[in-house]
Amino acid sequence: MNYFNANKYKLILLISFAFLLLSAATIQKKYDNIVHPNILFKTETRYILPTSVVLNFSFGFNNIMADLYWVRAIQDFAIWDGTDPFYLQEYKNIAALDPKFSYPYLLGILTFTSRSVNDVNGNISTLDTIEPTIKIGIENLPDNWEIPFYMGTGFQLAKNPEKALYYLKIAATNPKAPEIVPSVYKSYLRNTLTGEAASRALVKTIYETTESETTKKILEKNVIINDLVEVLQNVVNTHKSKYGYYPSSIDDLVARKLIQSSVELKSDFNISINRYTGEVKVVAKGVE
């Protein structure tokens, strides 16, 4: 008798779960079919349940729900106009349900970059909207170099050098990243410091401490300063090969138009160049 009662309760529980899942799917379908009077949309729009609701009614099936939203995100890119918030909400739900699911982060970066750069309906700030979601992936998948690398190249295309350097640096310091990744980062850093995009905000991005644990690990290794030394050392060597002697300061590099500005660098770093050996030393101000 006890055996029968135990099985009966299991059956009731199973039927209850099935009913709840069916109800959730039905509710979402009803929302999808909502007609929006007095509003004209050039493309299809829809309502996506808020993240808090999805988490509270997933009943432990987080991975399955994340997969469903992932499939939907793939399908919905074709109808997304670049501005409707429903598409971003799909990625937010995926990250909340399964923060270690890597593929949606990569697709999200590609699609939002595409809308930022190529789509007449999008704008440069479109990529910024998905950045908080991408940070969830970077924090939960510290061994994944592709997510920050894609994000960095996305911001590079969107003409945001500060954020491009930040994410490319995270990717470049990942021990699992292929050799090409640090090369891309250093090349972009060199081109940025010696090109028209040089600015104080950009230079500060190279070394400034943030709340990100990933960034703190990078700073602890002192690799940020090392990168700046390497770039400046190359410029100093270029000066020597062209003019036959080493510069005595970065002002000499500016005078020869080998870098754009020394004011931004000197405001945040103490930089010395040995005029006899060409050795460059860099120390962030306030940490001597």
Topology:
Layout: H1 2-32, H2 51-56, H3 62-76, H4 86-97, H5 102-117, H6 126-140, H7 146-157, H8 161-172, H9 180-193, H10 200-207, H11 213-220, H12 223-243, H13 250-255, H14 263-268, E1 269-273, E2 280-284
Antiparallel strand pairs: 1-2
Helix pairs in contact: 3-4, 4-6, 5-6, 5-7, 6-7, 7-8, 8-9, 8-10, 9-12
Give a structural overview.
- Helices cover 63% and strands 3% of the residues.
- By secondary structure, the chain is mostly helical.
- The protein has a two-stranded antiparallel sheet.
Strand order of the largest sheet: 1-2
By helix and strand content, what is the structural category?
mainly alpha
Terminal residue distance: 79 Å
Secondary-structure element series: HHHHHHHHHHHHHHEE
> What is the typical, i.e. mean, pLDDT?
76
Beta-sheet strand percentage?
A: under 5%
Count of individual helical segments: 14
User: What Rg, in angstroms, do the CA atoms define?
Assistant: 26 Å
The percent range for helix content is 55-70%
Q: Which residue ranges are poorly predicted, with pLDDT under 50 across at least 5 consecutive positions? A: 36-43, 196-212, 214-221
- Main sheet attributes: strand count, strand direction, barrel closure: 2 strands, antiparallel
What characteristic shape results from the CA principal axes? elongated
Provide a compact summary of the structure.
The protein has helices at residues 2-32, 51-56, 62-76, 86-97, 102-117, 126-140, 146-157, 161-172, 180-193, 200-207, 213-220, 223-243, 250-255, 263-268; strands at residues 269-273, 280-284. It is mainly alpha-helical and 288 residues long.
